[in-house]
Design goal:
The chain has a single domain (4-156), classed as Rossmann fold (3-Layer(aba) Sandwich). Helices cover 36% and strands 23% of the residues. The chain has four helices and seven strands. The chain has helices spanning 18-35, 48-59, 96-112, 132-142, and strands at residues 4-10, 39-43, 63-66, 71-75, 81-82, 117-124, 146-151. Strands 5-4-3-2-1-6-7 form a seven-stranded mixed β-sheet, with helices on both faces.
């Protein structure tokens, strides 16, 4: 079986509201189940990253979790390794997430050269004030990766009682 790589990215704000969290989990599960990945790649944040990690572990899928600590934890996907070499000068904390995403996308783009299929799933919260997901999507598109974007219904966000 040839590699099918799924990279999941998205807004942490989706975890702030129960209906949005349910939407997020449904999106990750449905897209992953239809894509049938042999490797799931994601960050270590809450939100869609966490949903992707949970989904992969429940299904017994190999998983790479790119942590802001500078490490990639590889469950069933090889050995843990550093994404930020100790020999490189440290970044300021606010630059770590963007650099981690840049290197994560570059890694997936490299794997895509020999993979059967690669997909980036990007989940947005329209009420989010950050642009990390859009940044990652831009990097993925620039690397020639296929991207599917989905935006949570605004009524699932702030001001909704659950």
């Amino acid at each position: 079986m040839s590699a099918r790589i799924l990279l999941v990215t998205g807004s942490r704000a989706l975890d702030d509201h129960v209906q949005a969290l349910h939407w997020e989990r449904e999106q990750v599960s449905a897209r992953a189940d239809s894509f049938r990945p042999t490797l799931v790649v994601t960050g270590d944040a809450r939100g869609p990253d966490e949903s992707a990690r949970v989904h992969a572990k429940r299904r017994g899928l190999p998983l790479e979790c790119w942590s802001l600590s500078g490490w990639v934890a590889a469950w069933g996907a090889g050995r843990d390794r550093r994404w930020w070499p100790e020999s490189e000068p440290p970044l300021t904390p606010r630059h770590w997430p963007l650099e981690r995403n840049r290197r994560m996308v570059a890694h997936v783009a490299e794997l895509a050269k020999t993979a059967e299929a690669t997909l980036v799933l990007a989940l947005y919260a329209p009420w989010s004030r950050t642009q990390g997901t859009a940044h990652t999507v831009g990097l993925a598109r620039a690397a020639g990766l296929t991207v599917i974007e989905a935006t949570c219904p605004a009524e699932y966000g702030p001001g909704v009682r659950s």
